[in-house]
């Protein structure tokens, strides 16, 4: 609740009494008035600071003409009346214990480049380095705070994990995630060697074996901060471009590029009719890797009988309709191996829900790429509170995590990052080198 200095002072100073015969009106001297004014400012300032310390808000200043929104972890709310909205700037609630206050314009900076084309080296000024360092501290601090929040009890996926949280395995994050062996199902393996679904699994591998290594790869997050990023040419310059679910390129080419090599789809996108898997053009002429998590350590036979969302029917229809389609299903056991790798590398309990499509995609790409750029996965100074670049949903849970163990994922990716802070937090790109995995 906003605390106004005047209202507060009215509660702490006696009301003025009406003059009577025994109570004359006394006009204070100038010095008294100055003392009263100073006291009022001091008390009001202290109350405002105390109130700010207790308010759970995240402010982003977009511009003075935009409407004011409030978004929670789960669902956003538009202030219905102008007088109900905060007067300072758009107001986002991150969590009950959150205190995340800043104006993004304070942290943005642009630099000149020495050189031409892709070899250009940004000349980062001291002021820009300072701005970037402050923004990095804000983002990493918020992700760390999220990571340390109590994990809600959940038995949905029957997760069992026994390693002490402070006992971290040796080696790099790349090595540990590579050991998780995120992979697709094969028609050669049981039970698919003899059941009906196996006849629909493609014979071709997920990636062309003739060019299966030493490639440049990019993972394109669907984040709202891609809006006005102008990263399209950079994205399209990679050998493999990975996108997710139904994220479009048409109409957004300047920001997200036009090239798509592979799409990673969750089972809801495969199953639900509004995503038009069988008819939408964006699912044609690309490699598809669909996933459904199943339960932790669940045998494949049980998962096939009871998936989270029954993606198998539409998978079979798609493969029948487009016989040359390179449409694969990710092994659900490997998804939970990736979750276990993430928990192994995190010193706090993480949410016992499956990792994001982005983290699963990273596991798929590590064996086949020389390096992997991840665009707008860790928030840059373009962060705007939007969940996706292609819609207007305001939901900071998409940025900092509300259901997936997203904070843990992003902190691990940042540990694996080889790019400069300017590249990560101003340009919006993380780089992970995977050409040293043979040393794991």
Automatic annotation (TrEMBL):
Catalysed reaction equations from the record: a beta-D-galactoside + CMP-N-acetyl-beta-neuraminate = an N-acetyl-alpha-neuraminyl-(2->6)-beta-D-galactosyl derivative + CMP + H(+)
Pathway this chain belongs to: Protein modification; protein glycosylation
Highest taxon listed in the record's lineage: Eukaryota
Pfam families on file: Glyco_transf_29
EC number(s) stated in the UniProt entry for this protein: 2.4.3.1
Key words, A-Z: Disulfide bond, Glycoprotein, Glycosyltransferase, Golgi apparatus, Membrane, Secreted, Signal-anchor, Transferase, Transmembrane, Transmembrane helix
GO biological process terms held by the UniProt record: sialylation
One cellular component (GO) term of this entry: Golgi cisterna membrane
Keyword flag Glycoprotein: yes
Bilayer topology: Single-pass type II membrane protein
Any GO molecular function: beta-galactoside alpha-2,6-sialyltransferase activity
Subcellular localization: Golgi apparatus, Golgi stack membrane; Secreted
Family, as annotated: Belongs to the glycosyltransferase 29 family.
PANTHER family on file: BETA-GALACTOSIDE ALPHA-2,6-SIALYLTRANSFERASE
Official protein name in the record: Beta-galactoside alpha-2,6-sialyltransferase 1
């Amino acid at each position: 609740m906003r605390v106004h200095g005047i209202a507060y002072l009215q509660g702490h100073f006696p009301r003025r009494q009406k003059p009577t015969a025994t109570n004359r009106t006394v006009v204070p001297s100038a010095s008294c008035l100055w003392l009263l004014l100073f006291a009022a400012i001091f008390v009001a300032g202290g109350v405002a600071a105390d109130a700010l310390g207790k308010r759970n808000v995240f402010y982003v200043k977009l511009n003075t003409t935009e409407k004011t929104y409030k978004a929670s972890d789960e669902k956003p709310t538009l202030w219905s009346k102008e007088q109900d909205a905060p007067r300072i700037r758009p107001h986002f609630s991150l969590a009950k214990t959150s205190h995340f206050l800043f104006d993004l314009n304070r942290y943005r900076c642009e630099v000149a480049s020495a050189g031409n084309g892709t070899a250009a080296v940004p000349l980062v000024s001291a002021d820009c380095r300072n701005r970037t360092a402050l923004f990095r501290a804000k983002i990493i601090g918020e992700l760390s705070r999220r990571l340390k929040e109590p994990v809600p009890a959940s038995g949905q996926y029957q997760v069992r994990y026994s390693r002490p949280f402070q006992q971290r395995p040796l080696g790099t994050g790349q090595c540990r995630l590579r050991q998780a062996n995120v992979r697709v199902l094969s028609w050669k393996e049981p039970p698919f060697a003899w059941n009906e679904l196996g006849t629909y699994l493609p014979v071709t591998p997920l990636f062309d074996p003739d060019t299966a290594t030493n490639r440049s790869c990019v993972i394109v997050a669907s984040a709202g901060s891609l809006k006005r990023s102008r990263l399209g040419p950079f994205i399209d310059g990679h050998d493999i471009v990975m996108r997710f679910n139904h994220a479009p390129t048409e109409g957004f080419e300047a920001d997200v590029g036009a090239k798509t090599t592979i799409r990673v789809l969750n089972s809801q996108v495969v199953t639900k009719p509004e995503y038009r898997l069988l008819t939408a053009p964006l699912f044609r002429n690309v490699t598809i890797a669909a996933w459904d998590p199943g339960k932790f350590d669940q045998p494949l036979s049980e998962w096939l009988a009871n998936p989270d969302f029954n993606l198998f029917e539409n998978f079979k229809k798609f493969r029948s309709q487009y016989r040359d389609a390179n449409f694969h299903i990710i092994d659900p056991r490997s998804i939970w191996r990736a979750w276990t790798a993430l928990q192994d590398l995190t010193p706090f309990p993480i949410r016992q829900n499956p990792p994001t499509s982005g983290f699963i995609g990273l596991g798929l790409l590590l064996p086949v790429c020389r390096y992997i750029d991840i665009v707008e996965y860790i928030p840059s100074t373009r962060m705007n509170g939007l969940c996706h670049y292609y819609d207007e949903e305001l939901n900071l849970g998409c940025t900092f995590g509300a259901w997936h163990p997203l904070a843990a994922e992003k902190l691990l990716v940042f540990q694996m990052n080889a790019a400069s802070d300017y590249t990560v937090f101003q340009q919006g790109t993380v780089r992970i080198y995977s050409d040293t995995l043979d040393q794991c």
